[in-house]
Amino acid sequence: MYQPKPEWLKIKARSSSMTDDVAQLLSSLSLHTVCEEANCPNLLECFGRSTATFMILGRVCTRNCTFCNVSKGVAKPPDPDEPAHVAQAVAALKLRHVVITSATRDDLEDGGAGHFARTIEAVRSVNRKTVIEVLIPDFQGSTASLETVVSAAPRIINHNIETVPGMYPEVRPMAVYERSLALLEKVKAIDSSMLTKSGIMLGLGETEPEVLDVFSDLRKAGCDFLTAGQYLAPSKQHHPVVEYVHPEVFAGYKEKALAMGFRHVAASPLVRSSYMADQAIEK
Length: 283
Ligand code: SF4
Fold this sequence. Notes:
By secondary structure, the protein is an alpha/beta fold.
């Protein structure tokens, strides 16, 4: 059933398109940002903070999450020039914090892990000071693929848990809750100094006890940073919004998560997994 958006989600109706020269730069380098793909309301704010999120490995996903607006289908082979192009954009935009993410590429032998590693190394070669965060898929649980990414030494490894385990069959049917938790735990086992992060969307039909259980599972997996934001349905064909969660409820979750030991928590309706990503590090 359609629910009109509450006041707190209407406040921020400002432009989410990037400036022409940035758009030109990215298109000349055949690059895509999640910011554009998701029509993110925080785009200008993030760019204003010299942070941005690049989507590598194409715009097509091999999975079928019902909340996600990324195209599904047969994906193209990775562009071998992409790592260098991302590095060029990071240098041109003087980014202080870059998030590198991708759709899930179950069609690739290593799930795209090698391409992630080459992109991390290319960015580092143009600016050692840029904080590199990668938001990775689950590589179907492959430890070898995860080791490839960890050994490229980004500063933060992010893998979104997205929702509560009870919602996985209808929201993330090709993912496995325990596999996503195990991935975050494995990162710390491979490199205990690596910072890990995860994110959850609220408003898909989960209950508070379920959400708090996810927080506690993430803490048990050694997760350092947490993001929680309101799910917004990209279209009527996607999973419906079951609830618009009040900002005070988000504030309550933030308090409880910090009390559980997360080093940094961003929780409010418009928070996205890369939103204010630089703040977690600055703390
Ligand atoms: S795996 Fe990621 S990109 Fe693919 S459909 Fe799910 S959320 Fe979207």
